[in-house]
Design brief:
The protein has 210 residues and is mainly α. 74% of the residues lie in helices and 0% in strands. The protein has one domain. The radius of gyration is 25 Å and the shape is elongated. The chain starts with 10 loop residues before the first helix and ends with a helix.
Length: 210
């Protein structure tokens, strides 16, 4: 009897599945209001779009502590931390370089737009096999701060602000539509159940009269 070989997923399929698991599942399972959950997405996306990979969850926690002192800006810490996954080891390098280019343009340093090699060398050095994760993060941040820190710090701001605002709008719409469709399905199911019960109650007198 031939054994069924497990189907191998492509890299994009695995990344898509992981993205749904990390980003959408927390939204689907959130028991909070749509606004509360969407604010969590916005905070997580804001910090995700900054050159601070490795400490973004801590920044979400600090933001959450501040937001707890208010009534209008409270958000889901779980969702916020989940959405920092947008910046990861696969997306970090191109995102950092995008921040750098944008920052140089905003600072008017058109003649200094270069340095992709610096990112590549820093990345490879920081993530050497004999270096731990946290040491790698600190080394990478230190190297990038020395080389292009100001440009990245300035260049990430438009992405963080606009990305946080757009993610709030889209996630709020997604949550509301999903919950509305779930209510419709529940109502439809309840209606069919009542119709079946009514049909059965009408059949009983006729069967008993026989």
């Amino acid at each position: 009897m031939d054994l069924v070989q497990p189907q191998k997923r492509s890299f994009l399929d695995r990344m898509g599945r992981l993205s749904r698991l990390k980003l959408l599942i927390p939204l689907k399972r959130s028991p909070h209001s749509a606004e509360y959950s969407a604010r969590g997405v916005a905070v997580g996306m804001f910090w995700a779009l900054t050159p601070l990979v490795g400490i973004q969850m801590y920044l979400c926690f600090m933001t959450w502590l501040v937001a707890q002192q208010t009534k209008s800006f409270r958000f889901s810490l779980v969702i916020a931390c989940a959405w920092t996954w947008v910046s990861n080891v696969f997306t970090m390098l191109p995102m950092y370089y995008g921040f750098y280019i944008t920052g140089q343009i905003m600072l008017g340093n058109w003649d200094k737009i270069s340095g992709y090699e610096t990112f590549v060398v820093s990345f490879e050095f920081a993530f050497a096999d004999d270096v731990g994760f946290w040491d790698s993060m600190l080394e990478l941040l230190a190297l990038l701060a020395r080389e292009v820190g100001v440009a990245m710090g300035v260049g990430c701001l438009p992405y963080a602000i606009i990305g946080g605002w757009l993610s709030y709008k889209f996630s709020l719409k997604y949550i509301r539509q999903r919950r509305a469709s779930r209510v419709k399905r529940q109502l439809k199911k309840a209606t069919k159940k009542r119709e079946r019960a009514a049909a059965q109650s009408l059949e009983r007198p006729s069967s008993s009269s026989r």
